[in-house]
Amino acid sequence: MLQYTIRRLIGMIPIIFLISVVVFTLAKLMPGDALSGKIDPLNSDPEYIEEMREKMGLNDPIPVQYVRWMGGVVQGDFGDSFVHKRPVMELIGDRLPNTIILGLSALLITYLLAFLMGRYSGRFAYSFGDYLVSGFNYLALAIPSFVAALVAIYVFAINLGWVPASGSIGSGVEAGTLEYYLSKAKHTVLPAIVLGAMATAAYTQFLRNDMIESSRKDYVRTARAKGTKESAIYNKHILRNSIIPIVTLLGFDIANLFGGAIITETIFTYPGIGYLFVESVNARDYSVMMAIAMMLTILTLIGNLVADLLYGLVDPRIRLS
Amino acid sequence: MKKSAFWLLSLLLVMSVFLAACSGGGEKASTEKEPKDDGKASGEVKEGGTVTFGYTQPFKGVLSYAYYEGEDDVNALQFMHEGLVKTNDELQPEPNLADWELSEDKTKLTFKLKQGVKWHDGEELAAEDMEYAWYLIADPTYEGARFANVAMIKGAQEYKDGKADTIEGIKVIDDYTVEVTVTEPSVNLLDNIWSIPEPKHYYGDLTSKEIPDSDQVRKNPIGVGPFKVKNIVPGEMVEFERFDDYWQGKPKLDGVVYKVIDGSLAQGLVQNGEIDVIEAPKDQWEAIKALDNVNPVEADAMSYSYIGFDWGHYDTKKGVVVSDNKKFQNKNLRHAMAHAIDRQAFIDGFANGLGKPLNTPFPSVSWAKIDDSEINQYEYDPEKAKKLLEEAGFVDKDGDGFREDPEGKPFTINFDAMAGAETSEARAQFILQSWQEVGLNAKLNGGSLKDFNLFYDSIEADDSSIETFMGAWGLSPDPDPSGIWLSTDKWNMWRWYSEKSDELIKKGVTFPEDASKDVTEHRQEIYNEWQKLVNDELPIIFFEQRIDPWAINKRVGGVKITPFGTDEFHKWHIVE
């Protein structure tokens, strides 16, 4: 297994390299740069813009710019954000906690809902309840997240006033106090529900189908023949087996966790990675944009590896070689 | 798959907010005009309370006037810091933290600071702080965009180039007096020279390059304004609390919260009171205006939009525009294209009436704006447009419904506009159809709108397919048109060359020969002449001047709205 892991990690290097080329090229292909929005005779003049482009090396040949960027990345330095005037890593570091809190809460909600609904649907397959569950799942899948977010805000924040509509923290609370954490939770709950509850379809249907399949297996028939109670069959024998593939999905969720939710974060003005990403794309803040893209790439690759390793761990029938 | 498709869609939505926010274009300094005070609302003035000021773009957190870039940061800065000079209701400079005196030969400017103005950390504001700000901006490592505002100081360029250790033209006389010598006299020196001090004692040994990323700017910035920073949540919120030692007296509010929200939620948040003061998104104005708890205020803005004709290109080597494009040289054609568009209908239809047609590059709030009776109003008149086109020789010879040019060759017009807002496409179609109605074959360049960056990149690069384009400018209080209108200006986007115009613009910033004559009057005369020239020549179709809609919760009083934003923060209060 160790050998396998090392082999996979080495195999990632050329992939990361190729992706870095793609990310860099795509970024450079976008029209404009961080300075092209600065046409403003009041507080910047054309000479300043020229000077800054020269200083930032935007006038150098593209390969030179790539090598310079990559040189920094290898050493863990993603450069400075032009718009924010500070190192990219600090900027991302600032936003990461918010994104992780939101991502984790959303993931918990997804797993919890998916587990409950999947278990029900799997046990009572083709019943009215099952159709209701899959109806909900596909509806949630079909509703664009910005629509869901806006409706949720309108209903729960503006009309009912249960939770605040935007931001990640209330005003006038001191960091570290209980009030602070409550405020944080209050601000996170709505975006987390919007994110989490809308994404249950894959997990629910996965669990349901696996349970239906398992219920036709020989060991289940044996258990029934022995007179085991129906609930014990489902909860003990089938569910345990069916949950295995779900656990492995966890690996794939790693990248999601850190990548943030671009749309949801933006609408809720929740300052996380997704929000930062949109902001940087709009402002053509290349260094930030490329750093986030690279970070997600690497996390996705690692996530895949983790998923494969988990699979080998929980299911002894699968051998990694 | 789901994610990527909607990603695009919502990016568009986000963009529309972004563009709506930046289409004003101009710098929002803490200047003022037209006291549209809503605070006269009935009720008692209550001491204390907190007001939430909303904005629809995340702020970067560069909380120093010398370094900030966008409106997002200046919206926070306005509560906490001020300059020596401010702009009054007539858009003229007025003493704020300092009085000034100009020497006989107009090259020596002496600032005399008020005594007892305190920084938020208790130190007194000193002349050194002003000197320090100039040094920071002229520093060779300075990476902000303000050098143009100190370039006129004698020796600043040498200091920037590393040829001198000090700036020759700056002399601190005593703790409250600083004298600057400028390279040449200019009427709008006070409008242009940098006049916002920076706290020298507080930044300590930081270099000009380090300051924008220092904790002194990002986490605990200080100023001399009515509110001091209490807490900053990056990109999301800044909490301010009252500064009791404020030089104009203790502010009435306990604090202000500057909060970033998503533009699409503006109406709801204003309605439920989460936001008290905000420049409302124009597309929601109808609904916001009608809310029970809102005082709607509409303020003329210092910005205008235009449709530019492409006159030629910019000769980078010579640094001058060359008007070598023959297409729009015919004045009747340009006039006809202006008469063909119903600008009022456009404003009513797409901007909830938040705008007014204008016919010179000066919005009506500017003191230099010429009287409307003296210039052509280019009212909507398709018949007149047709007649003008006939006269110019643009006739439909082959019967396809579109006019050919005087030589009988097909005549098409490419039009460009920025994408982003929901109504962008419809706006562009409105203009195309207006021109088609009078027989001009106008079409969207490349069949689609351009995104903000591509739009300006193509125009600046003199892309040959660009023929007409809709852009906008935000303006500073001083009417001097240079920067956009001189033939040497790179931002003369339409590449219009006119010796007469250059001459008038340059004359507009000189002192009158007769020293007893009022400078403003003298400039007014020159600018009137210039406005008549551009109004008649019509190098661009002046389209509309903007009106900024502000929603202010009825519980808040004393909010002053100016063409550049809000003002008089120390007078804001809660009305019971």
TrEMBL record, chain A:
<feature type="domain" description="ABC transmembrane type-1">
    <location>
        <begin position="96"/>
        <end position="307"/>
    </location>
</feature>
<dbReference type="InterPro" id="IPR035906">
    <property type="entry name" value="MetI-like_sf"/>
</dbReference>
<feature type="transmembrane region" description="Helical">
    <location>
        <begin position="288"/>
        <end position="314"/>
    </location>
</feature>
<comment type="similarity">
    <text>Belongs to the binding-protein-dependent transport system permease family.</text>
</comment>
<keyword id="KW-0812">Transmembrane</keyword>
<feature type="transmembrane region" description="Helical">
    <location>
        <begin position="188"/>
        <end position="207"/>
    </location>
</feature>
<keyword id="KW-1003">Cell membrane</keyword>
<keyword id="KW-1133">Transmembrane helix</keyword>
<dbReference type="InterPro" id="IPR045621">
    <property type="entry name" value="BPD_transp_1_N"/>
</dbReference>
<dbReference type="Pfam" id="PF00528">
    <property type="entry name" value="BPD_transp_1"/>
</dbReference>
<feature type="transmembrane region" description="Helical">
    <location>
        <begin position="138"/>
        <end position="162"/>
    </location>
</feature>
<dbReference type="GO" id="GO:0055085">
    <property type="term" value="P:transmembrane transport"/>
</dbReference>
<feature type="transmembrane region" description="Helical">
    <location>
        <begin position="99"/>
        <end position="117"/>
    </location>
</feature>
<keyword id="KW-0813">Transport</keyword>
<feature type="transmembrane region" description="Helical">
    <location>
        <begin position="243"/>
        <end position="268"/>
    </location>
</feature>
<dbReference type="Pfam" id="PF19300">
    <property type="entry name" value="BPD_transp_1_N"/>
</dbReference>
<dbReference type="InterPro" id="IPR000515">
    <property type="entry name" value="MetI-like"/>
</dbReference>
<keyword id="KW-0472">Membrane</keyword>
<feature type="transmembrane region" description="Helical">
    <location>
        <begin position="9"/>
        <end position="27"/>
    </location>
</feature>
<protein>
    <submittedName>
        <fullName>Peptide ABC transporter permease</fullName>
    </submittedName>
</protein>
<dbReference type="GO" id="GO:0005886">
    <property type="term" value="C:plasma membrane"/>
</dbReference>
Automatic annotation (TrEMBL), chain B:
<dbReference type="InterPro" id="IPR000914">
    <property type="entry name" value="SBP_5_dom"/>
</dbReference>
<dbReference type="InterPro" id="IPR039424">
    <property type="entry name" value="SBP_5"/>
</dbReference>
<dbReference type="GO" id="GO:0043190">
    <property type="term" value="C:ATP-binding cassette (ABC) transporter complex"/>
</dbReference>
<dbReference type="InterPro" id="IPR050034">
    <property type="entry name" value="Opp4A"/>
</dbReference>
<keyword id="KW-0732">Signal</keyword>
<dbReference type="GO" id="GO:0015833">
    <property type="term" value="P:peptide transport"/>
</dbReference>
<keyword id="KW-0813">Transport</keyword>
<feature type="signal peptide">
    <location>
        <begin position="1"/>
        <end position="20"/>
    </location>
</feature>
<feature type="domain" description="Solute-binding protein family 5">
    <location>
        <begin position="93"/>
        <end position="490"/>
    </location>
</feature>
<comment type="similarity">
    <text>Belongs to the bacterial solute-binding protein 5 family.</text>
</comment>
<feature type="compositionally biased region" description="Basic and acidic residues">
    <location>
        <begin position="29"/>
        <end position="47"/>
    </location>
</feature>
<dbReference type="GO" id="GO:1904680">
    <property type="term" value="F:peptide transmembrane transporter activity"/>
</dbReference>
<dbReference type="InterPro" id="IPR030678">
    <property type="entry name" value="Peptide/Ni-bd"/>
</dbReference>
<dbReference type="GO" id="GO:0042597">
    <property type="term" value="C:periplasmic space"/>
</dbReference>
<feature type="region of interest" description="Disordered">
    <location>
        <begin position="26"/>
        <end position="47"/>
    </location>
</feature>
<protein>
    <submittedName>
        <fullName>Peptide ABC transporter substrate-binding protein</fullName>
    </submittedName>
</protein>
<dbReference type="Pfam" id="PF00496">
    <property type="entry name" value="SBP_bac_5"/>
</dbReference>
